[in-house]
């Protein structure tokens, strides 16, 4: 599944977070004049700082393609269990803390880590509205000729 948002480079920039009511969708990958492409969290190139909601144990979520992600949990004394919720940790400065990413469907306990399979909380094939997080986006370089967003678009957060 691939998605795009109906706002182009006058409104959004690469690495802006994309959220849906059910959780994290991904991030803006590439902008064009009239639209922007979104890299889903399931994309093998996607990496997001996350934590287990119940224990706050940190990890990095990586896309595995299709409808699966994987998290490597290091330095956590508590075991991750099936059904645990994985959420954004906020340490990557792209995704605000506490947004659901998915639910644990499998755990492989290794000596030095826990490898966790995660099913995303968002059904990408049923998306009809997303929000682009403008607050944590990197600032545009005025010298590079990239205009700053001027007004909110449908589905986008208000500008401040």
What is the compact description of this entry?
Helices cover 0% and strands 39% of the residues.
Q: Could you characterize the architecture of this molecule?
A:
0% of the residues lie in helices and 39% in strands. The strands form two sheets. Strands 5-6-7-10-9-8 form a six-stranded antiparallel β-barrel. It has a five-stranded antiparallel sheet with strand order 1-4-3-2-11, with no helix packed on it. The chain has 160 residues and is mainly beta. It has a single domain (3-144), classed as Thrombin, subunit H (Beta Barrel).
Features:
Thrombin, subunit H; 11 strands; five-stranded antiparallel beta sheet; 39% strand; mainly beta; six-stranded antiparallel β-barrel; disordered C terminus; 160 residues; 0% helix
- Low-pLDDT runs of 5+ residues are 147-160
Strand count, sense and barrel status of the largest sheet are: 6 strands, antiparallel, barrel
How far apart are the termini?
32 Å
* Fourth-level CATH superfamily: Rod shape-determining protein MreC, domain 2
Specify the number of helices: 0
Q: What is the name of the CATH class?
A: Mainly Beta
Strands side by side in the biggest sheet: 5-6-7-10-9-8
Give the beta-strand count. Answer: 11
CATH architecture: Beta Barrel
**Quaternary organisation:** single chain
SS strand fraction: 35-45%
According to CATH, what is the topology? Answer: Thrombin, subunit H
> Which range best describes the helical content: under 10%, 10-25%, 25-40%, 40-55%, 55-70% or over 70%?
under 10%
